[in-house]
Give the backbone structure.
Amino acid sequence: MTANQPRSSAEVIALFDRYVIGNYKRFPVCLVRGEGCYVWDAEGNRYLDLFPGWGCNLLGHCPPRVVEAVREQVGRLIHVPNTWYLEAQGLLAQALSERSFGGQCFFCNSGAEAVEAALKLARLCGKPNRYKIIAMLHSFHGRTYGALSATGQAKYHHGFEPMLPGFRHVPFGDVQAVADAIDEETCAILVEPVQGEGGIRIAPAGYLQALRELADRHGLVLIFDEVQSGLGRTGKWFAYQHWGVEPDIMTLAKGLAGGIAAGAIVARKELAAKLQPGMHAATFGGNPIACRAALATIQTIEQEGLLPRAEQIGQRFRDRLRELQARCPLIREIRVLGAMIGLELQGDGTPIVQRCLERRLLLNCTQQTVLRLLPALTITDEQIEEGCHILAEVLNEAAEPTTVAAS
Ligand SMILES: Cc1ncc(COP(=O)(O)O)c(C=O)c1O
């Protein structure tokens, strides 16, 4: 069986049924091509994608500068390990450091790996006696054991216990709960400035500043997980910049390389110096393709003015969704920070996602009741209107009382 003869969605699904582990809930559609905010399935249907690549396709599908950089790099040098120096990795570290808080970078391939690196570095800094990490309820940090133990949602732990020791979860937004949880063995606080998978929950005013103060007072490492919110997604390079506080370590992945797998941490130099040769590594981390893709992503954001554009995108969605909320009783709350958009519904959002799919609109439902949109920063106003129009139709239909046919 060769991969280059086109197959129908049904044929591909049959392959999956037989050969691929069923650990994902998938829509019965095989996607074959993407361009900007649209994707096409094997049958030629076009979909408007408001959740491209689970947030990885920050610039939409196949962004031209990223495609060009990857094409060029693939023909020159695909991979060399970290026993060598690579210009692109050095330049990417410089770009991230200069746009954040002046730290040093370690590169890996995913969000969970970035979180693992941050946790290991935090524990290293807590030696000899401190190892406990305070993390937040409803957080999401990934599926590897460290990241999973840090994740404050029991549903993801079920079946995989025991989790790693030393994690304490407290309500997101509650400063006093963090203060109460700190003891002489605590080494770090881990928080997402905007909880993404947790339902687009934005840090309340003063919260991150208060965590910074607590960390400074107790000598703790403050880690911001910006895997979902980072690299321009919210209208600033990093979401924490909305609140004017800096972490000691920041994690990045998802949109970092415009859809190519990449992860990173940025750590303050004094902390970073603790990671000595042999203590941590990732074979593919910082490979030339990912680094060139990330540099092209940063260049695109800068040259196309996508930081202010992210704010405009958020404003436009907010306006449209508020208009809709005024007419549609299903919408409980709208939460927006740049191109991170959450729509809390009165009930289950899963059927809404299904009906949107039937109308060729792709979005996500998280925490059962929150519709999550992570549109590409390249989305046009027309595409926003198109998406909001379909969503409005679907939500209004769902809000109508079901009419029982008179017999
Ligand atoms: C904030 C945050 N951290 C970590 C992760 C894990 O990333 P990955 O799936 O790339 O391991 C995610 C994924 O959704 C995330 O949203």
